Amino acid sequence: MSEPRLVARDVHVKIGDTPILHGASMSVHAGELLAVVGPNGAGKSTFSRAVSGLQPMEQGDVCWGGIPLGELKGRKIARLRAFVPQRAPVPAGVTVREAVELGRSPHIKAFARPTRHDREAVEHALERTGTLEFAERRLTTLSGGELQRVQIAVGLAQEAPVLIADEPTSHLDLGATAIVARLLRRLADDGLSVILVVHDLALAAAIADTVVVMADGRTAATGKPDEVLTRERLSEVWRVDASLDERGALHVNWLGR
Amino acid sequence: MIRLVAAILLALLVYAAPAQAAPRVAALTPFSASTITRLGVRPVVVGQTLGGTDQYLASLRNVPVIPLSHPLGPNMEQLATYNASIVLSSKTWQRGTPAMRRLGMKVYESDPSSIAAVGHETRAIGKILGRTRAANALATKIENDVRAAQQGIKRRPRVLVILGVGRTPYAMLANSWGGDVVAKAGGQLLTQGLRAPSGIARISDEIVVQRNPDIIIAVPHGNPGAINRLAQYYRSNPNWRNTRAVKNNRVYVATGNQLLQPYPGVAATIRSVRAKFLKNY
Amino acid sequence: MTVRRSSVVLTATVALVAAAAASMALGAVHVPLANIWEALTGQAEEGPLRQIIVELRLPRTISALVVGAALGVAGALLQGSLANPLASPDVIGVTGGAGFGAMLTLLAFPSAIALLPVGALVFGITAAAIVFAIGWSGAHAGSIGRVILAGIAITALFGAATTSLMVAFSDRVQSAVFWLAGGLSSDGWSSLSVVWPYFLVGFLMAVFLARPLDRLALGDDVAASLGGRPRLVRLAAAAAAALLASSAAAIAGLLGFLGLVIPHLVRLAGGTASHRFVLPASALCGAALLVAADTLARVVLAPIELPVGPLMVVIGVPLFLWLLREAV
After folding, report:
1. What structural domains does chain A harbor?
2. What are the tens digits of pLDDT across the range B119-170?
3. Contact check, Cβ <8 Å, C211/A105
4. ipTM
5. Which of A43, A96, A168, C287 qualifies as a cystine partner to C65, CB 3.0-4.6 A?
6. Orientation of helix C190-216 relative to helix C230-252, angle to 10°
7. Is the Cβ pair B103, C178 closer than 8 Å?
8. What does the alpha-carbon distance between residue A168 and residue A177 come to, in Å, rounded to a whole number?
9. Which chains touch A (3 or more CB pairs under 8 A)?
10. Was domain B2-147 assigned CATH 3.40.50.1980?
11. For A85, which of C1, C221, C273 is closest by C-beta distance?
């Protein structure tokens, strides 16, 4: 296998005086879709933010393409990874195209105009996410699913080899979730590394190459979905009696009877 | 013949010299306008506060007037057109002083708030005008007149001088112009314990009743249209009915500006206060 | 889209030029156009008319222009960085601080009247600095809510101090009211010569902040994803706004309305929130509106001057409400 694009080892994070992460690790390769799953409060989002450089770490090694995160500032890190947040504000008076154009800012020098390549990258990001058809509409007029795809388009316009998406489907209906899931899988198939923070185990199992299970601020397991998301682990980490069948459906004994 | 021509020329010269020397003065207050008039200099322009409360000598009726309003006092563009070399302003308009100076005008803020200051201010204005001797003579005359006007005070009644800003009463203290005039005229101001750098202090009707003055002199302040109504109000202010002044029918209303603004003719004001209000001849 | 933006910029430029011309041509004293031209080109002879044009009207027009532009830009910077449509220099304490500084000079130390712009400037910046010190420390440092709450508290504090001064020196309040209402005065270059470096720094910072501010539009996380430093950008934008608004207050008193409304007006008219459009267009529109309002204030009741603040509100509010109705 090729060199991993991201290696994170033994990450510790405190927010205020509260320890959130104490020992989380992951690595991701080209074309890999890695799903970070875990119960609420396990530290999934914090972990994804910490490796992205959005959240200061107490300790831990995070390297992007072999370079420590601490040496990557501003534009440098922005060219290595794009972070798509869980819920971004929807500013008034901004069109889809203008929002996606913002994704090019790490590549445009101060006071310089966008080059043809910049415009092509924006066009390509709009196309890949299926947002080109409403590119001139304002963000305020979009549905939740459309907005989420625009957010991903912003990240794609960044042209970073790794895309980190924090719960992109948690507010979406079934149809919109499926569109985003297919989109992320396609991106990985095209060679992008995708880190997907998600709480929907069935979705993770269906599209991920690798699953990282987080529990109490630690990575509890890493591996292929069917190897990691076993009945025993679901019981241990989520405290439910549930299992994934061969077709990727999640069976839950909801009432514990 | 030659002698005649020479005499005429000499006469013209003598006549023309002082006319040429007369500075162009903008007098923004009645005090400075009266003072320079008495010193033989006619102002090129006088000031008038918004609302038109300033009262000028009748002889200055034809002098152009510029309105004074905040922030700077006169409109600088308008003032500039009169091409004045000296501006006699006051502390009220001191924000305008730097602007006037930048326009090349000599500015003096003259605002006597006591009778004692009138002489001093008169001399200062004379110095600026280059009429020191005349100003000294005028100041000495004013001081002598004031002294004469204070002769033979028989009674010293207990007085409150009330400045009525609308229906809000303020006490005029000894360090205000009106308070000083009444005190010099022989009134005992019942303003003990009240102090204000401006010379006027907010006073409640309760204090007026409690201090129980023999005489109340009300000085309504406002635009000319409102003065009569205010005078009526203060003449029969029901809140004061239990004071000795009301019972003895000794509430007076001073509607002129003589107690509000300094004038060089203050000796006459003292005599008039004694005769009309204090009745202490 | 770009046609719409260009037409907004063009309209604002034409309005500004027209307003500046009117501001030079009109006033308490009638000066023929020929004389104005001669005075400005240095051909006029010494005299009151030349003095009126060169030493009174020109500085006043320039001051109005700079102050209007500064307030427009300050409002745009704050609304952009705090992602709050209600943000104006009031929010970061500048108005409260500058008001206190000016009242301190006007009421407590009237003999030091020349220090009025310095007092407003120093206290405006001090108040903003306190707000920033509180807003950018502790947990949630630099978060919008924290900054705005700190601003409200500090504004209230300085507001109370100002009111106390006005009560303590109630006899002098009259001379201070004009300043609080906001307005320019014909006192030559004196104020501008003191505060121009602060204007310059503020405007320069604004130039460099346009792109970083645009990146804040999609939230702090996206900004950070794009390699920006959202908290630093917010601090820099707020500091630039504090400089501009304090300097504006030093010259023209409290004209908060301008900073609040102009950026909205520009966004509604231009149909975009991009700071590369909103910042320069706000500068143009702010300058045009203030120069026009100041000219009106001088002319309507000449030679008496009306305070510009209330007059501008009277002109600006209907325009603003109309745009608000037209906007989708």
Report:
1. 1-80+160-257 (3.40.50.300), 87-159 (no CATH)
2. 999 999 999 999 999 999 999 999 999 999 998 888 899 999 999 888 888 8
3. yes
4. 0.90
5. C287
6. 150
7. no
8. 8
9. C
10. yes
11. C221
